[in-house]
Each structure stands twice: as C-alpha cells, then as structure tokens.
Specification:
This protein is an all-alpha fold. The chain has helices at residues 9-12, 18-37, 44-60, 68-87, 97-122, 127-133. Helix 3 (44-60) runs antiparallel to helix 4, helix 3 packs across helix 5 (97-122) and helix 4 (68-87) packs antiparallel against helix 5. The longest helix is centred in the C-terminal third of the chain and has 26 residues, at 97-122. It is globular, with a radius of gyration of 18 Å. The two termini are 28 Å apart.
Length: 135
Amino acid sequence: MPLEKVITAEDKKMRLPWWGVVCVIFGSILLGLVFVHFGKLALARPTLDSVAMVSIAIAMRWQLRRHAWFWITMTLIVALHVPLILFVPWTTKWVPAIVIIPIGIADLYAMLAILSVVGKFVERPKTSERSATRP
C-alpha cells in the first residue's frame, strides 16, 4: 500500500457483506440498550458514530494489522474519541444525516491521514539500510 495516499482505489471498492450488516444492526441495538439502561441515551449516537468510523478505518487498513504501530496508533485514536464523547454536550433530538455524515467522513479521513503519517515515519528505511544502498 502506498503510504502517501490517504484514500486508495481499493478503499473505494470496499463493500460490507450481508452478515456484516446484520452484525452492525444487532451491535447497535445492544449498545443502545446499554445506554438506555444506564440513562445515558444522549451518548449512544456519538458512541455508535465513533465506533463506526474507527471500525471503518481499521477495515480500510486491515493489511497493516500485523504491525504493532498500527494498533498502538488506533488505540491512541480511540483514546482521543473518549473525551470527545464524554465531555461534549450531545442531544437526543433528531439531527439530520446531512449534518452527521460530513463530520463522520472528516473523522475517518483524519484517522486515515494519521495512519499514513505514522506509517511513513515507522516504515522509513533504517540508517544502516540507507547507507548500504549508497555507492
């Protein structure tokens, strides 16, 4: 995967299989019920949106799963989402998709850009490898 491209042609061809849709539906229902049980329904939508964007970012960069830096970076990204979910005052009122979708896409793009930048630094050739290739 070329690290200089944030969104690749392979990313644009991704599709969720039917069983993935079923898992998303049931997972969303279960998570929503947990928030209802604890009386924090206002946190359900931002949590589901964040989980969805993080999951999509992981799926789009699944070929990096064997690299420790990938999981460390994703853990830090998730840790940054937690205060955003907890400390921003969220509403339980209806919010149009035209407002939510651009925010989610910006979040996803930011995560992919962070992974790209971190990947460039981590996957950089080592000093000994660079000097061995010089004449």
